[in-house]
Amino acid sequence: MTETVSGPRGGAKGRSATKGLKIGRIFTTPGVHPYDEVTWERRDVLQQNWKTGETVFQQSGVEFPDFWSVNASTIVTTKYFRGAVGTEQREWSLKQLIDRVVKTYRRAGEEYNYFASPAAAETFEHELTWMLLHQVFSFNSPVWFNVGTPSPQQVSACFILATDDSMDSILNWYREEGLIFKGGSGAGVNLSRIRSSRELLSSGGTASGPVSFMRGADASAGTIKSGGATRRAAKMVILDVDHPDIEEFIETKAREEDKIRALRDAGFDMDLGGKDIVSVQYQNANNSVRVSDEFMRAYEDGNAFGLRARATGEVLDKVDAKELFRKIALAAWGCADPGIQYDDTINDWHTTPETGRITASNPCSEYMHLDNSSCNLASLNLLKFLRDDDTFDTDKFAKAVELIITAMDISICFADFPTEAIGETTRAYRQLGIGYANLGALLMATGHGYDSEGGRAMAAAITSLMNGTAYKRSAELAAIVGPYDGYARNAEPHKRVMRKHAAANDAIQPVETLDETVLDAASKAWAAALETGEKYGWRNAQASVLAPTGTIGLMMDCDTTGIEPDLALVKFKKLVGGGSMQIVNNTVPRALRRMGYQEEQVEAIVEYISEHGHVVDAPGLKQEHYEVFDCAMGQRSIRPMGHVKMMAAVQPFISGAISKTVNMPETATVEEVEEIYYQGWKLGLKALAIYRDNCKVGQPLSDARAKKASSSESSAAEKEVVVEYRPDRKRLPKSRPSRTTSFTVGGAEGYMTAGSYPDDGLGEVFLKLGKQGSTLAGVMDAFSIAISIALQYGVPLETFVQKFTNLRFEPAGMTDDPDVRMSQSIMDYIFRRLALDYLSFEQRSALGIYSADERQRQLETGSYEPVVESVPEDTGDASSLKQSQVDETPAAAAKPAPTQAHTSTELLEAITGTTADAPLCFTCGTKMRPAGSCFVCEGCGSTSGCS
To answer: Where does the TSCPD domain start and stop, copy by copy (predicted)?
Structure first.
């Protein structure tokens, strides 16, 4: 817990501390460091592109707690560890990463007089360390990239730029946007100040209009899109609905989508990432139309709406509001752009209107504030606050929010910014964006349907508690180090917005005891926030947003990102030491137990889900409980309006907005899109975007039925001559070199004879195991023939090594081979031995396979990286289901994942027979999953635009 010590106000660096925060312990134990409470283990991180087989990253011997998943440790190692791989400067332990960040925050907190005593500072450090170590929360990616390194200490992920109606300003926009992209972040801008193509220049010529300048910015973003450590460039372009060029803006990307279709039909490679897609314009930005209440009322009434000149404000033209709104919906139906932002709603919740209006947002639409500003984010893992008795720990949640908000505010004291203007605004208004992940998992675990009154009430209560507590702590910080610089001129509107939040909290209707308890705590938090803020003001102009939590959500091992529901009921899970499993989400059995199902029923339902991927007709499951297990994808996917209503439930308790795309089926109509956009305004949202399955040419088909229909159409068409390419079999010569190896695995003896081509490439394998004529001997003969023929048809040995090493079955255990001391099965041993005999060192090292001599050389000289055998034996069991890996999931929930699946999205495709409408990851080649208004790759943590 925390409290303040009274004293004179001040916050200047170096003043004598006469007051500060007293910080009590929440999670930690006095005298025990958080690192000493967990078991640490060493792992090897290998990241490959599954499509090409290329190794894109490798680091051996990294150190993580034993309860961190392989995915989380891989993402942290590849994305956040600093220093060149293979050098002494390279980070190799999670301890180093957390210390680098947390100790920097502590030093800054002490330097700027946030703490009442050194003991309070130490407690602050330990509490933050414990929460990060136990995946209770995470800062946004730029913090992990930059804090505590020689690089500029950039902590913000979200930026808003500004551009005026002058060439200097427009060119400066290009430059500033490029600098932000180079750092791996994104920015948004409103171009409505730029004169339209219907207006005259001072020289007498006609203006180009904002859409023409978008071309140059789009090309710049496409060129710099690989900058940064974790994601491609992301940008948002916004135009007001009363701009004379609004129709051209609305149709910009829709026309380009028509061009893509035409070029594809002409034979050009127009897939996402294809070599010809770069010729298409405007593809690097999200576009949004900023609509006013005036326009929406004209739409409701069927009236005309005036488009106004930028320079004079005169009405240049009048358009039918219904027709214009239909054009917005039609374009979004056709290519997912533009999204929509509700200007008057946004500015009605604006805390600093005396400084300026809110005109734009960041690329994912969750951060909305002043021009030339930024916001740093952090997100809590909600499932960490669910007790064993399925009640929400409101006390620990509130105390965690207080600590995190404190740390986020401290970061602004030492942070660097990409431009001077952004730095000045951010330091003056100190915008923060605390949020959360795992809402969908929390609701399911507590027996709430995502699209239900109970689910919405629970989400609203938690969000209100988070925001109320954040503003309470912001007011307490104002008492210690002063309010934000712009508070004095904005005191009344800021207080007005605080009262609006509190009033919205009072309007929540609890459905059951669980959310009633959370709501009671939220009401107390808002009362304290108003009382303290009335006296001291607030330290921060904004406190909360709901971001996508793509990469950091995976870092925290969250099942769901941001405000999203579960993607599916089954997920793909990598195991320590190699291998993968198909596991039913752990929240499913927990939800079933909470709803009163017996253990035998739970196991039967979970086994059914594992086979079918949904709950329809699951044995013993009541139909009224189906809604609890509705997901974003699958047979019982959540209806589009269910997503909109969830956003509406939590929006009144967010300072900024919500990053979320409402997914719609391919069969959705333009009228349905129009209704979604209209209801977004009626329900009080600040921004909304939709995505209709298969509306993008560069995306795969979303449903197997669509494939069948396409196949039927093509068969009915005129038959064409098809040229079929087949691989040639390269047979071995009559006389060829061979090598025979005797081996023992777990007491079982056998022989392997490997024959090779004269140029030394492996061409055949014969295995002898068991008595001649036995079933085992026959199976091994057939297996040998299959492998030999495949090798002669050109299947690389590396492929077999990847697939067959780490398979576990009896006999397993000790071998008599000094190069492979332990083996998990006969197959594991055979293909490790073949790799050692026939693959180059580079090929083997990419697979983590080394000889005894190489391992010894590494120990003596350090010239080779640590190897698999240096990992503790209990972590090398590729398919063992350790308690820390599958938690309490019944045995029926876990089984080997299909070989074609490398992420949960691909696993869902394999189970349901449908194809997910998501892009492929540029780094590892796997299907990505939705995360807010962008996508995140479960395999490597890369995102399509947001952190």
So the answer is: 733-837
